[in-house]
Amino acid sequence: MYKTPISVLVVIHTPHLDFLLLERVAHPGYWQSVTGSQEDGETLRDTALREVAEETGIVVPPQQLRDWRQSRAYEIFPEWRHRYAPGVTRNTEHLFSLQIPTHQPIRLAPDEHRGYCWLPAQTAAARCFSESNRDAILQIAFDATNAPS
Question: What's the predicted TM-score (pTM) here?
Answer without folding.
Answer: 0.94
